[in-house]
Specification:
α1 crosses α6 and α4 crosses α5. This protein is an alpha/beta fold. The longest helix is centred in the last third of the chain and has 15 residues. It is globular. The chain starts with a strand and ends in a 31-residue tail after the last helix. Strands 6-3-11-12-13-14-15-16 form an eight-stranded mixed beta sheet, sandwiched between helices. The protein has a four-stranded mixed beta sheet with strand order 5-4-9-10. The protein has a two-stranded antiparallel sheet with strand order 1-2. α3 links the parallel β11 and β12. The chain is 25% helix and 23% strand. It has a single domain, classed as Ribokinase (UDP-N-acetylmuramoyl-L-alanine:D-glutamate ligase, 3-Layer(aba) Sandwich), CATH 3.40.1190.
Length: 373
């Protein structure tokens, strides 16, 4: 599991990174590790509310953050974990769109060459209010431009993350799979109420499918998340079912391997983007060739670190946060040795130079400060 730390020399403020695929890279590799496409939102997140907003009253939030959201949550999480990430998206022709483009390209090092700015199009916006461990969201957006989601020909990449939509097929998914990309599929709530796996035609291109427990049980007609995961392997080689506070469970049909990892107990500030971070962690471990249980543990850890900060892409952890957490938990008196062994694989992944105080606070509570001359 050897990794290589690398410092950025392009003048950016991104912290030193770990390359989890360093030992696997060869000259004829694809240029990109992961390809993504989708809609970028501007997310504005209010936190520190004592309760849900009450009709006819004004509520004051103790915290606020703004950041690129939507598919940008996943792209940022992957990039901060050291994967070379390529995103195809449409950006609004406004200050919001300019801010999101700059934050992703300059701030996170994400390749936006397949993306474009659409003249006259307003950036979609989501306002999220976090309270009592939950969130309420209000979104606004204009009709997306034609062919907004993806270009006709996706670039060659090791992997792609696809959001599957009931009753709809996205041609780029099959194209990416034919080029050798390993497809990781996630899914949202089925508003049609059909919960029919046959309505997810692109599932046949996926190596892994990562629904939450409720989605998995509805799609398989089972009453147990583990039974749902087993049933899903009739349709996809690898099923990963997230169980919320109970962790995650996975079944690999090809090897017969199963894995169950409990969740890490943390004080959650904002769950926005935690599912995207989980997927990013699992993709990272899979591309690096880690054992299934290590992949689940790493994905759960990254998700747990993310909910301790507000915002979606703002809260995605990098290796500095992971290193800080790992050093800190080893020093806790009375730490369960079995729990430490579960994450012992991190010892070879986090160079000493990445140690910083934990938890880190990375969020900037404004769309952007003016640059000094």
């Amino acid at each position: 599991m050897a990794s290589t730390a690398k410092a950025f020399t392009d003048g950016s403020h991104r912290p030193p990174q770990v390359d989890p695929l360093a030992a696997l890279r060869v000259p004829d590799d694809p240029l990109w590790d992961v390809y993504l496409t989708g809609t970028v939102f501007l997310d504005i997140v209010f936190t520190g509310l004592d309760s849900a907003p009450v009709r006819g009253t004004e509520s004051w939030a103790r915290g606020m953050g703004s950041s690129p959201g939507g598919v940008a949550n996943m792209a940022t999480a992957l990039a901060r974990l050291g994967l070379r990430t390529c995103l195809a998206a449409a950006f609004g022709d406004d200050h919001y769109g300019e801010y999101c483009w700059d934050a992703l390209e300059q701030g996170e090092g994400i390749d936006l060459s397949p993306s474009r700015t659409v003249p006259g199009w307003h950036s979609p916006v989501t306002v999220s209010m976090a309270y009592e461990g939950e969130r309420t969201m209000v979104s606004h957006g204009h009709e997306p431009p034609p062919d907004e989601p993806a270009p006709d020909c996706p670039p060659r990449a090791r992997a792609a993350v696809a959001s599957l939509t009931p009753g709809r097929s996205a041609p780029w998914i099959a194209q990416a799979a034919r080029k050798g990309a390993r497809i990781f599929g996630d899914v949202g709530w089925d508003d049609t109420g059909a919960w029919d796996l046959a309505a997810l035609p692109d599932l046949r291109h996926c190596e892994a499918f990562l629904p939450n427990a409720e989605e998995a049980m509805r799609y398989t007609g089972t009453d147990c998340p583990r039974a749902a995961a087993q049933a899903l392997t009739e349709h996809v080689p690898l099923a990963v079912v997230t169980l919320g506070a109970q962790g995650a469970y996975a079944v690999d049909r090809r090897t017969g391997e199963t894995a169950s990892v409990p969740a890490i107990e943390v004080e959650a500030l904002d769950p926005t983007g935690a599912g995207d971070v989980f997927v990013a962690g699992f993709v990272t471990g899979t591309l690096a060739g880690w054992p299934l249980a290590d992949r689940l543990a790493f994905a759960g850890l990254t998700a747990a670190l993310s909910v301790q900060e507000f915002g979606g892409s703002l809260s995605a952890p990098g290796w500095t946060e992971i290193a800080g957490w790992w050093r800190r938990v080893q020093s806790v008196e009375g730490q369960d040795p079995a729990a430490l062994r579960r994450y012992a694989f991190l010892a070879d992944m986090v160079p000493e130079g990445l140690v910083r105080p934990w938890p880190l606070r990375r969020a900037v509570p404004t769309i952007g400060f003016r640059r000094s001359a």
